[in-house]
């Protein structure tokens, strides 16, 4: 059963025990554009104690550079690019390193600028994504749209992630690429979170967009690059020898049982679930021992608040 | 194994053998706005031979009245409202007769005017659907949209069907109603076709929209009103005593194995698959005997062409 972080001793024990603190962002660090209480203070405290702090997010709408801007904007300073691992970056790395897609091939993107930027940083050309032609006529679907009728023969991979600029045209073009060439173009999902938490409600998550084109095309994604997939954690371990040698020195902090907690657990890390996202205390306590988080807390900021 | 309709004798045998001819529309009668070859002649021939002709469509974007207009427009005259059974009508009837939703409750619609009209004809108030506030700002999603932040407490059912005016806002509001009140508001799917065939390509079908909100809300539809669900066929049988008494006197003609053919077979009718929609001859011939269509043909118009 998960141990609740509800006293100074328990909070201090966690700070002392781990060297690597990995954080999900949405629902842990912030909700929407609002930083959660005492998060900045908690991160400061950890850094003052020489802890390694890393951010691991499934939200593919932003690139790592975009995330640095977001941290600044909500009042967390001093984060560096190598501390941030997003599913947009993980997906781009997957396409380069695992698929080894030639750089003269293009990638069709159903998603936002984060995916485009990370791919472009690796030298790929993207199509779809934020192309204004896909949203210019957002209200009325045109079955003879130029991008629906003229598929690009150079597309060598399809990436699907979260976009709030979703429409029938984008879904239908994505489906064309997924069924093209006898369904042979690789189908990459940034992550499969069913919902996207904002400050006061749950919205449609990347996984729910992926389900739509998956059902339409009769295909499952060939790879899911976000949590709980271990490829992102392996990349983090490669950069952090101490964590690679002793995963038990790492704590994965998140708000979702089926992504964040599984991600940490599968990688040999201990886990801390915070209740500022989508899970409830009842849900946490109902978990079987084998999958229960190591700890849970009302909020990340309790690590700071309880130790003052 | 399915018998191919490839000669005068076989075509004539079919015309002679059945009294009731039930037709799917998209991919059988028309594709998009184009009537398929010799369809009008085939329907004339059947009517001249005193056959009962009925249209059974999963496309919920139109009401029965709208369908009459569409038949006229593409060159098929004389169709009457009682010859047309659409999934929008079937869904509205389900809400009235099976759910017995009080008339002072409202229905949230993710779909087109067809659903709204059929519900309004039964005395219900619909919200969502074609409300222009849901598409006015089609490009940029507003997380504080009035319809997302102010859920209507009188909504007593959610219907999801096909809409090409799809966006993230509509999906997210639909999800709010599906998770509202501990997920207790009934969730009705017009049909679960994964794709929507147009004249030259497959687009996203109602089922692929339903999958999205289903995955997001963690709910399966409580009812699917279109083919292959038998509620539509039972309604047809109720109006056609001869078919009810002898289902074997009926032939269901369609272009989909998993909806049209299953619909006919489950209801005791013989079946004819036409290759003008989404299936291929290879797929038809690969079916196990227990689920293979009785017949298949290159097109519906062959019944006319081959008997001249």
UniProtKB/TrEMBL annotation, chains A, B:
This is 4-nitrophenylphosphatase. The keyword Cell wall biogenesis/degradation does not apply. It catalyses: 4-nitrophenyl phosphate + H2O = 4-nitrophenol + phosphate + H(+). Mg(2+) binds at residues 24, 26, 255. Substrate binds at residue 227. Keywords: Hydrolase, Magnesium, Metal-binding. It comes from Suhomyces tanzawaensis NRRL Y-17324. The active site is at residues 24, 26. InterPro entries: HAD-like_sf, HAD-SF_hydro_IIA, HAD_sf, PGP_euk. Its EC number is 3.1.3.41. One of its GO terms (cellular component) is cytoplasm. Divalent metal ions. Mg(2+) is the most effective. Gene3D superfamilies: HAD superfamily/HAD-like. One of its GO terms (molecular function) is alkaline phosphatase activity. Its cofactor is Mg(2+).
């Amino acid at each position: 059963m998960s141990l609740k972080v509800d006293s100074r001793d328990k909070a201090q024990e966690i700070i002392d025990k781990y060297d690597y603190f990995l954080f999900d962002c949405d629902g842990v660090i912030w909700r929407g554009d609002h930083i959660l209480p005492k998060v900045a203070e908690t991160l400061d405290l950890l850094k003052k104690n020489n802890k390694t702090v890393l951010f691991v997010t499934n939200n593919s709408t932003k690139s790592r550079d975009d995330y640095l801007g977001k941290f600044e904007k909500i009042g967390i300073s001093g984060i560096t690019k190598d501390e941030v691992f997003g599913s947009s970056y993980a997906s781009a790395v997957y396409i380069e390193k695992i698929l080894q897609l030639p750089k003269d091939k293009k990638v069709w993107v159903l998603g936002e600028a984060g995916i485009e930027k990370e791919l472009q940083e690796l030298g790929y050309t993207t199509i779809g994504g934020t192309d204004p032609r896909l949203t210019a006529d957002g209200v009325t679907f045109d079955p003879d749209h130029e991008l629906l009728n003229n598929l690009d023969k150079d597309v060598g991979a399809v990436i699907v992630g979260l976009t709030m600029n979703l429409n029938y045209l984008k879904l239908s073009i994505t489906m064309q690429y997924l069924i093209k060439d006898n369904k042979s173009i690789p189908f990459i999902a940034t992550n499969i979170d069913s919902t996207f938490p904002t400050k006061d409600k749950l919205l449609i998550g990347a996984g729910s967009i992926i389900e739509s084109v998956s059902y339409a095309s009769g295909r499952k994604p060939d790879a899911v690059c976000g949590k709980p997939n271990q490829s992102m954690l392996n990349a983090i371990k490669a950069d952090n020898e101490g964590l690679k040698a002793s995963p038990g020195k790492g704590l994965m902090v998140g708000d979702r049982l089926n992504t964040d907690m599984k991600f940490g657990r599968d990688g040999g890390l201990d886990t801390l679930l915070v209740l500022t996202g989508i899970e409830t205390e009842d849900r946490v306590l109902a978990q079987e021992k084998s999958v229960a988080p190591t700890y849970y807390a009302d909020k990340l900021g309790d690590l700071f608040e309880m130790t003052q």
